[in-house]
């Protein structure tokens, strides 16, 4: 029974817990026992909080028994990325500098999740300070991909991706500044949603780049992502970038009906220099959406030409501003890779940063025009398949190319524009590595992209395939 | 006078590791190429849209 429990998504566990066919404590113990075994190889966890988790699960069971069922996530055990503050609990940012940091307040979204009855089981490994795409962490060890343990899980939320894919966490949260939710979601074969900028409060999350950071769900199914977004969304006066818009319902709007929906495909940018296997899988995915009744239209977004530059200057400059003092005073306490990025981020001038913001504005307006013609955009999530741990280049159709630049190419535009973007699994490629398809929507239309993802998920794109490592230990 | 990357960072109090210099130079050159490509963008009408809200972060 416990083996069956750990592999279930939230949408299947929720009715069992609600109807008291299984208790939150049983699920929590099963998931944590499984995690203790699996994590010896995967290394997705930085800390586990078993005693607090079991106490919270008992409380959830009591609440449910007394008729106070709070919703889909009540009693669901979950670990979160270790850059989200939980009062009086170790929060390391997977760094040496914050290796013993204990926050004196809790992130707004964590409070919302506690109110929804979620049981926290621990904190997850990540790229140090979220400034990278591999989760090859020099202080806490490399996190491994459960589909192929020799390979990266992606990053920066690699621990979240690996934990959900290998059933060590029923769902999770990631943060995304240049793709850090969508990259590991694509690479680990799960669903990752970067909501509209400002939709989800960032208060109590250690920043990487203020104007690009987002927090969002990483889950086994689209419905799970929709349910988690319902909990974490909402205006927060403590976050200066939070937007005051009505909260939305997402789960009830999932019906998979995409008839007459217009899907935009941009060939010049999002299908340029893409791994042949990735391209083949994503085009097949678009074809499936057409078979479900959607129409496909080719569109142009001229501002994408300069998106890479704007993303680089903005993210590098903002991250280096945040870390400037420590880079001066204790540079050796950073991992070598992010120290180099912080050094690089000290080089752009103020004029260059501001011109990057002008390019960003141009890009936003270009997307706005595109969404007058189409409902959503569909792209590959990544143009490449993540390589083996330790590599900083990757094979792209027979040519070795820079791993970072080619991993974030299709990510950055959604961070610059703040547009909601969803990655859903769309196939499995070479070396048993999953491939993701990205669905980008207009501002605040998470409901729309989730419904497209839901329709696609129903076509069973992974054909029931699971990570080989997670299967072998069950 | 063109300052080296090492000098620019030294002026900011940052000590660059020796093995970082060639990588930094390569990456910075890459960014300079992208910047030059962006010079053809006509940005005259693009306000950066930074909001300066008097009295707090949000208009309630």
TrEMBL record, chain A:
GO terms for molecular function: transferase activity. It comes from the Bacteria. The keyword Ribosomal protein does not apply. SUPFAM superfamilies: Amidase signature (AS) enzymes. Residues 26-450 form the Amidase domain. The keyword Nucleus does not apply. Keywords: Transferase. Belongs to the amidase family. This is Aspartyl-tRNA(Asn)/glutamyl-tRNA(Gln) amidotransferase subunit A. It comes from Alteribacillus iranensis.
UniProtKB/TrEMBL annotation, chain B:
This is Uncharacterized protein. It comes from Alteribacillus iranensis.
